[in-house]
Amino acid sequence: METVEQLLENLNSWAVGAVVVATGAALWWFQPGQKKYNLPPSPYWTLPLVGNIFQLMRMKKYSYETFRDLSKTKEYNKLFMIHLGPKPVLVLNHIDVVLEALVTKMNDFAGRPKSTQGMLMTEGSKDLLFGDYGPVWKFHRKVAYSAMRKFAFGEKLEGLVQNSVSKSIAEIQKKGDVPIDIRPVIMLLVFNISCGMAYGKEYAFDDPDFQHFVNITADFVDALGNGLPGDIHPWLHYLPSSRYNKLMTVKDQVFKFMRERHAECKENFDPNDPRSITDCMLQAQKEAEEEDKEMKGVLTDTHIMMGTRDLFGAGNDSITTMLIQFIAHMIQHPDIQERVHREIDAALGGAQLPTLSHRSKMVFTEACLCETLRLGTHLPLSFPVQTTCDTSVAGFDIPKDTMVLVNMWAIHRDPDFWSDPHSFNPDRFLDDAGNLDHKPPSYLPFSMGRRVCLGRSVALSSLMLAIPQLMRQFRFSSPSGEEFKLEFEESSFARIPKSYEFLVAART
Ligand code: HEM
């Protein structure tokens, strides 16, 4: 039987198209009392029911590149509107309109669109990332943040990162002087940081649970990244879909891992001695229910499991990706690698391992990280938010329940703010006196506003601990000695670098 993906591809036929248009037009025009809005311009001719789906499917480039190209035109310069099926989607391509929406009107832009995929992956949006703006989500985020402050800050984080990096360094050293694919070792490093924080657990490289995780991660990102036909229109959910089947298989495997870890934490839970973020959330759940009986059922075990899964998952992919790209930039620019080595050696002096107190002495290394975050832009269209009420941006009306995409990729490459925007130039983050200038105007790697990344400080601290520890030990280079080109997997959701083999030499 034809799957819905094949069906959509074949929808070019005039006959089917005509039926869709006619039915849609009838429904569209006969909606009683529809409010008229002064909407932002749309670059495409919009069909009722299917919206701009055909134009989007025919895009030759990644959607964020096509949206950026549109922004070069006068009419669609800063923002425009498209339709995913019947759903209006606002695309913000410029920092001015992003600041107005996410910062000035932060409550208006704090929702999350409900998607078939999101509901399936989060047991009905019971997590932090997909959870819609409201009292339950606010409480959940507050509890998760305070759990992170206990287990992912200061000395606890230092110990966790140092230990995780040491394990991965030992794995690299075992491989000898041959070119290696660094990804699995970096995944182990980040997996151990995340599992340590989330569940108080660590893994060896050959642990079957870790190896299984490596195998399913790519499938998971792929399945998540491409969305489901039901997200375009709810009725497509009822047609057979190969993507749906794939997503369900991967979801079951990921959930099995999370459920097992959650069950272990519950079994060993001691309210007087919390040992992980899960323990802290269990403790907060207990205290809230004891204080107020009505809190029972607000922060359920499923919320805790899903919330921890977010902290674990959101951190894993993004930090792994950024570390791999940081190393790739070092290989592409041996002179910069040399500067980083010199700075780290001077900053650490006789210290065996980097701590958070060394960070302020490694401004050039941190500038390289900032530049990696800018060029890497892990989530090029961020994560969609949704308007919680009728609102406006740049003088245009934006109706309630509009999905909003922030084109971070375009914003991080806006030539009005970044000279030679595609090149790796860490010095652009330093002022004339060599200090880190943390506030370049068109820069938001962790997004902004109500839905700003919850793990921003953990991510920056972890990376500024892991990078010096790795760089102190190793010099990275391209095996062939040829110029090394960084390329990315095809995914609309996250930018994941392709696998490469690097030469990793011990520094003497
Ligand atoms: C380099 C690393 C990271 C980058 C670039 C990054 C970036 C982002 C971005 C762009 C968003 C979407 C914000 C929005 O919807 O507007 C996000 C959300 C989120 N991130 Fe991160 N992140 C990183 C690391 C982490 C880490 C380490 C954690 C947890 C320990 C984390 C936890 C989260 C959570 C829970 C959300 C959802 C926030 C919400 O919906 O309220 N992230 N992140």
Detailed description of the structure:
The protein is α+β, with helices and mostly antiparallel strands. The chain has one domain: Cytochrome P450 (Cytochrome p450, Orthogonal Bundle). Helices cover 50% and strands 7% of the residues. It has helices at residues 4-10, 14-29, 53-57, 63-71, 95-104, 116-121, 135-151, 154-175, 183-199, 208-225, 229-232, 242-267, 277-291, 301-332, 334-348, 363-376, 408-411, 456-473, and strands at 79-84, 87-92, 180-181, 385-386, 391-393, 396-398, 403-406, 474-477, 501-506. The strands form three sheets. Strands 1-2-7-4 form a four-stranded mixed beta sheet. It has a three-stranded antiparallel beta sheet with strand order 3-9-8. A two-stranded antiparallel sheet has the order 5-6. Strand 1 (79-84) and strand 2 form a beta hairpin. The chain is globular. The site of protoporphyrin IX containing FE (HEM) has 25 residues, from helix 14 and helix 18. It is a peripheral membrane protein. It is found in: Endoplasmic reticulum membrane; Microsome membrane. Keywords: Endoplasmic reticulum, Heme, Iron, Membrane, Metal-binding, Microsome, Monooxygenase, Oxidoreductase, Transmembrane, Transmembrane helix. One of its GO terms (molecular function) is steroid 17-alpha-monooxygenase activity. Belongs to the cytochrome P450 family.
